[in-house]
Design a protein that fits this description.
The chain is mostly helical. Among the domains are: about 40-80 and about 135-245, Cytochrome c-like domain (Cytochrome Bc1 Complex, Chain D, domain 2, Orthogonal Bundle); about 250-305, no CATH class. Helix content is about 50%, strand content about 5%. It has eleven helices and six strands. Strands 1-4 form a two-stranded antiparallel sheet. A two-stranded antiparallel ribbon has the order 2-3. The protein has a two-stranded antiparallel ribbon with strand order 5-6. A hairpin with a 6-residue loop joins strand 2 and strand 3. Helix 3 crosses helix 9 (about 225-240). The relative contact order is 0.13.
């Protein structure tokens, strides 16, 4: 009885879901979703080929140093990296004296406390400090950026879909708002303090174009400081900040795959040379044992002879 009741209850739930699906499809056909400016004019991030891409990718140390320079000269004015310390720059090829000088010369000082008065103060950064946030708190950050909060860049390529490609596309995607967009969606006109960027989710971003012209950054290694090059390099640098152990992970993964391949081959040959032979030597027991089958046949014959 309980099973029958449970069956009808389940059937009722299934019927309700089916009815809801049918009504939903009917409503969708009668009143399809209204197109939006974001849906019509948003662009998927452009492809970005970096040395760190792929299962065997490795960081290009020169590119990472150029990317750090772009961050230092352009991005650090608004964005901090509270998960990255100055001493982590050793992985990019900087020597200890260079790291200490970079920290000491950093334009934004680190929050501290005056030991004499106990009041809030600032001090020069040291190698063990993390890259400081340019704003004391979120309220100050919003006040300085048209109520927009500049995100921390430590994990930005992990926090955004398409990662480095998104960052690169965003930095190079600023443009004039298309007349067709304003004509079709008058309410989506870029407002004061906003900038049109088709790679941003709602097309209008509060961050002004950080890279405005070629030559804005002069690279020490002689690489041309074009907007495109600077965007690529800082994107590569932010891949490193988000996953500094990427190369170790790739090496470990390759070693594990090789180990599993060898172990699989050894296991297969062990089976062929040991267990397959042992399996053939196992004697059948029970009803299928040839001796037992013969005894049953003999017993049947004897029973038939007695009955006759």
């Amino acid at each position: 009885m309980v099973r029958i009741a449970a069956f009808f209850v389940g059937l009722g739930f299934a019927g309700i879901l089916l009815i809801a699906l049918i009504f939903g499809l009917v409503d969708y056909i009668k009143e399809p979703p209204t197109p939006t400016a974001e849906h019509e004019f948003y662009k998927h991030p452009k492809e970005l080929a970096l040395a760190s891409n792929g299962a065997f990718g490795k960081f290009d140390r020169q590119q990472l140093q150029r990317g750090f320079q772009v961050y230092k000269e352009v991005c650090a004015a608004c964005h901090g990296m509270n998960l990255v310390a100055f001493r982590d720059l050793a992985a990019l090829g900087y020597e200890e004296p260079e790291i200490k000088k970079i920290a000491s010369d950093w334009a934004i000082e680190v929050a501290s406390v005056n030991p004499d008065t106990g009041e809030a103060a600032t001090r020069k950064a040291i190698a063990s400090d993390r890259f400081p946030n340019p704003y004391t708190n979120d309220t100050a950050a919003r006040a300085a950026n048209n109520n927009a909060l500049p995100p921390d860049l430590s994990l930005i390529t992990k926090a955004r879909e398409d990662g480095a490609a998104y960052v690169y596309s965003l930095l190079t995607g600023y443009s004039r708002q298309p007349a067709a967009l304003v004509k079709e969606f008058p309410g989506s006109k870029t407002g004061p303090g906003l900038y049109y960027n088709p790679y941003f989710a709602n097309l209008n971003i509060a961050m002004p174009p950080p890279l405005t012209s070629d030559g804005q950054v002069t690279f020490a290694d002689g690489t041309p400081g074009t907007v495109d090059q600077a965007a690529k390099d800082v994107s590569a640098f932010l891949v490193w900040t988000a996953e500094p152990k990427l190369e170790n992970r790739h090496r470990t993964g390759l070693a594990v795959l090789i180990f599993l391949l060898i172990a699989t081959i050894l296991g297969y040959f062990s089976y062929r040379n040991i267990w397959a032979e042992a399996k053939r030597k196992v004697a059948l027991k029970g009803p299928l044992d040839p001796d037992n089958m013969a005894r049953r046949e003999d017993a049947k014959d004897e029973a038939g002879g007695i009955a006759g």
